Amino acid sequence: MAAATVKQRAGGSRAQLPPCYYEGYLEKRGPKEKVSHRLWTCLCGNALYFFNNTKDTHYMEKLDLSGFISLADDCSRDRNLEAARLSLRLKDGETKLTAPNLEARELWKGFLYAVVDLSVPSTLTLLPGQLLMLKEVVEKEKHRRKARSLSRAPSSPLSLPLVGEIPPCFRPVSRVEAEVLLERYPDCGNMLLRPGRDGTSLAVTTRQDLNGSVFRHYRVTQKQQGGYVIDVENPIPCETLYDVINALMEKTSGTLQPFLLEEPYEENITFVSSNDENGERTLHCVRGGTPLRGPALPPKQGTEKWSPRHQGLSQSPSQSPSPRSFSPTDTPLSPMKRLTLSPSPLAQSFTDELKMKLEKRQRANQE
């Protein structure tokens, strides 16, 4: 048999993968690929990982089975008469897989259904020993997912004070949430700084595209004497978190770029109005251009309209008030003061003089 159940190998990034339930050579052709490639395929957790060969420690591509739709036999002929084809449909598209023979295809189907449905399939032609292996895989996967859901609990805040300014690519998210952000917004960058799971360190999550999303996670620890270190095989010391991001950009010749997600803002003003006749509500959009002026509200009784005369200013109709820009140092008047300002002494004396003249005219007319 070309494939066999194995224990997870240690070494390189393969040690960071979920437990491997089944592996072997498969020919794979993705939705955007025209030619099939023979790759060493590992079913680790709820995903398929593809390697160039059995000795590679870094996988080339990952197929997440959480978007599983269907799995069916492909009866089309292959140049290898013993080969058996499969059609794996996910939410992202359809992938063609070719097993070395019918027995290997049936076993692959069993393991795939086991991790997707978390139950032993009853419609496949399998030996009692193979069914027992699938039952063990189902129990292991249930235990793995339960442990993973517990570890996904919101991480505690960082227990160490950060030195210097925090780069804008910092996001207070978990490892899984960081992967989702980078995959959902690929145009915003591919490198994100986040808290470590232990609460005493930081981590950098990166995403690159190699026939699918390839994620990498780098630990960043703070030194007791100050500064930070990128914990890789040859540690990279950095004075600040900005230097951490710049170092990764330089090491990759600019391939890694900081993740900067700009929240969208509305470009036009919108409002909802109701039709009094039929009660229908309509969304309206106000575009830029000529300023819109609503009807002036009538002044309330006992109050006066705000105008320059409240400050004792005399102004001819032909003159217009000079424009004045508002600055942060300005101290605005409170609303109560704007509404209850009393006339100035100059305006009061002008009113008294006018009353005296009117009284003299009335007396002259009476005489």
Automatic annotation (TrEMBL):
Residues 314-328 have a biased composition (Low complexity). One of its GO terms (molecular function) is signaling adaptor activity. Residues 287-367 are annotated as: Disordered. PROSITE patterns: SH2. Residues 352-367 have a biased composition (Basic and acidic residues). It comes from the Eukaryota. Keywords: Phosphoprotein, SH2 domain. This is Signal-transducing adaptor protein 2a. The gene is stap2a.
